[in-house]
Amino acid sequence: MNAIVRAICLCAALFLLPLQAARAQAVAGIFSPDHTLHVSVSLDGNGRPSYAVTRNGKPVIGDSRLGILLTDAPKLERNFTYAGAETNHHDHTWTQPWGEESTIRNHYNELRVHLTEMTPPGRRLDIVFRVYNYGIGFRYEFPDQKQLHDVHIGDELTEFDVAQPATAWWEPAGEWNRYEYLYNKTPLDQVSLANTPLTIHTADGLYMTFHEAALINYSSMWLRRVTGQRLKAMLAPSSEYAAKVIRTAPFATPWRMIEIATSPAALYADARLELNLNAPNKEGDVSWFKPYKYVGIWWAMHIGKWTWSTGPHHGATTKHAKEYIDFAAKNGFPEVLIEGWNTGWDGDWFANGKDFNFTQSAPDFDLKAVTDYARSKGVKIIAHNETGGDVANYEAQLEAAFDLYQKLGMDSVKTGYVADGGGIQLRGDDGKIYYAWHDSQAMSRHYLKVVTEAAKRHIAIDTHEPIKDTGLRRTYPNWVAREGARGMEYNAWGDPPNPPSHIPTIVFTRMLSGPFDYTPGVLSLVGKNGQRIQSTIARQLALYVVIYSPIVMAADLPENYAKYPKPFQFIKEVPTDWSETKVLNGKIGHYVTFARKDRNSEDWYLGAVTDNTRRTLPVTLDFLESGRTYTAEIYRDGAKADWKTNPFSIVIEKRQVRRGDKLTLTLAPGGGEAIRFVAGAK
Length: 682
What we know:
Elements: H1 2-22, E1 25-31, E2 37-43, E3 49-55, E4 58-65, E5 68-70, E6 80-95, E7 103-117, E8 124-132, E9 135-142, E10 150-156, E11 159-162, E12 166-170, E13 184-187, E14 193-194, E15 198-202, E16 207-213, E17 221-227, E18 230-235, E19 245-248, E20 251-252, E21 255-261, H2 264-270, H3 272-276, E22 292-297, H4 299-302, H5 318-331, E23 335-338, H6 367-376, E24 380-386, H7 391-407, E25 412-416, E26 424-427, E27 433-436, H8 441-456, E28 460-463, E29 479-482, H9 489-493, H10 502-506, H11 537-546, E30 551-553, H12 558-563, H13 565-573, E31 578-587, E32 591-598, E33 604-610, E34 615-620, E35 629-637, E36 650-658, E37 662-667, E38 672-679
Parallel strand pairs: 22-23, 22-30, 23-24, 24-25, 25-28, 28-29
Antiparallel strand pairs: 1-2, 2-3, 3-4, 4-11, 5-10, 6-7, 7-8, 8-9, 9-20, 9-21, 10-19, 11-18, 12-13, 12-15, 14-17, 15-16, 16-21, 17-18, 26-27, 31-32, 32-33, 33-38, 34-37, 35-36, 35-38
């Protein structure tokens, strides 16, 4: 009997040897500057690298694999040995030319880990971690080496193993409607394939967002749940090559980033991590770009009054353009957007933009006459370049188009890529046309090509149907805004339209990545065929403070603004460039309140929105300057306001306030509140 037991024990010991040999051993680690977060890097007995994150000693990200899958060579994942590490401390403050605050502190500790394969060909790989008090970023760096000079990446093996049970807010990736989905709220272990930013709330009270920074010449990262709460990077595919990314060493991947906070409000502040992980401004003096509000020929097409195509209801005529220019000049709007001005809009242009010409006007529109007239009124025209997804056609005309716009005094272009996911047409290296994803490596190059060509001509870019924002506005400050989510147009014709919960969800998901061109201010509250917008009129004003973009549209028709002159006054006055931003409260999907200080005055602005629930939110005015009296110009929901039954009920009033005073915001279902705090003398 003893012999049998000894044999069983021997077999068990032999079985456990590979597991013991594979157990991960920490080889390097680093704390955040305040010692709150700690990242450890390990190698197991098979030479597989991994990392883990703790907060105040408690696991946040469990042991998570690192590595790269190649299409023409063995993967970079095992047989590594630790070849040393360096650490670095960094702390400086930099100034934004425009943004949600004037200055940003970039304070982190850095760990650079060198790995070398123990077996031939002995390839080298560096993994760099930057650890902030509020999150981490890490990336792979490929040194130039004869063993791996041309790098063909099939996918990443990067993992994020969330340690605590969590709820997730996410939208699907790799689907036909790109980033334009309503967000799901599910347990994290029910996520399938998600775009980033992906936001979670853990059972122990942490809020975390997974995203990436500095997406340049690389494929976008999607997140695929593999088991339990373990997420794995999945790169958007290439249609031209088996490899999703093709690069030549030396190069670095985008940063994989995790923001970690104890509240939704703090999570929004943590979004500066994305900007800090990007390179400084490469464009030099960009003072030629001034943040602005604009009006334009746009909403009328979405509600069916006018058409993009030529004919009896064509919107972009010279006559209509001059009327909008007059309206802009009268009301202080410096720019006018005109969609449908050029040839190519007749016929089926969706995902079929081969007929678009970006220098030739439609027969009833004179671009030079319109820009000359605008100049005489102190107004500029925003060129609209809809590609219909035909990037090959657009790139062939890009430089000539931008040269023309510069000559005519235009300083902004709104681009569009209306095509289903996977439906972008671009010309490959072999000269053939391929169908690609909006967030593929080839398209990441294209979007940046448009931005850099525009910068040469002092033109700002607002991208619709974009690749997601990853903070490149720091490096290329003329990339001023993007769409990349369900915008106002869904309230015109969406089935369903955006519900009241959409904005307080977007704030803590999509908006963590950067400026969002949502096109608010539809005071008429009606879309196509009488479809009701799920908003009160006060909420439309609040959106100008809640949703950030340095360029913001007053989207409604001029005749509708004439009906509501007092609410329209707030739209005319609210700025789009801020020196400070504070999130006063927030619950994801339910409500949020912002306070922002005008960069060009001492005035503050407040905006609050709620979901479908009537609620009161106490606010302390501790953001105001001490010793100064402010006049609070308040635009709030009426006592019986409700987006369904009484959406136009609004109370406009004034009161004197000082720092430390308390206000109670009373928000109707689908409602909001907007306040301008006009600074008095000290």
